[in-house]
Amino acid sequence: MEQFLLELGAGFSFVARQYRMVIGNEDFYLDLLFFHRKLHRLIAIELKIGHFKAAYKGQMELYLRWLEEHEKESCEEQPLGLILCAGADQEQIRLLQLDKSGIHVSEYLTDLPPREVLEQKLKSAMQAARERLAAQGAKK
Question: What is the CATH number of the domain that holds 65?
Answer without folding.
Answer: 3.40.1350.10
